Amino acid sequence: MGPEPTITPEFTRDRLRHNDVIILCSDGLSNQVGASEIASIVNTKVDLEAICDALIDRAIETGAPDNVTVIAGRYTVPTVD
């Protein structure tokens, strides 16, 4: 998490909808690439691995001074038979 003796996590609460993509990332991404650009990149890709690759590439292109870690997941609602 970093060299600090304590950290303050950020929490948000949102209602998820079918096929929403959830991004968990380090500050190597979030300090380099704005939320609107992250959303734009996520919306141009379907494959989760491609989303992660594109976000990491963008952070590196903008000069990320630190490591860049990205995890992407897709929320799906099961169908009822």
User: Helices and strands, in N-to-C order?
Assistant: EHHHE
Distance between the termini: 44 Å
Which secondary-structure class do the elements indicate? alpha+beta
The low-confidence runs, each spanning 5 or more residues with pLDDT under 50, are none
Kindly report the spatial arrangement of strands forming the biggest sheet.
1-2
Tally of DSSP β-strands: 2
Shape: globular
Average pLDDT figure: 92
Largest sheet: 2 strands, antiparallel
Radius of gyration from CA coordinates: 14 Å
Q: Estimate the strand proportion.
A: 5-15%
Count up the helices: 3
Fraction of residues in helix = 25-40%
Q: Describe it for me?
A:
It is a single chain. The longest helix is centred in the C-terminal third of the chain and has 14 residues. The chain is α+β, with helices and mostly antiparallel strands. The N and C termini lie far apart (about 45 Å). The radius of gyration is 14 Å and the shape is globular. The mean pLDDT is about 90. The chain has a domain of about 50 residues. It is about 35% helix and about 10% strand. A two-stranded antiparallel ribbon has the order 1-2. The relative contact order is 0.25. The chain contains 3 helices and 2 strands, in the order βαααβ.
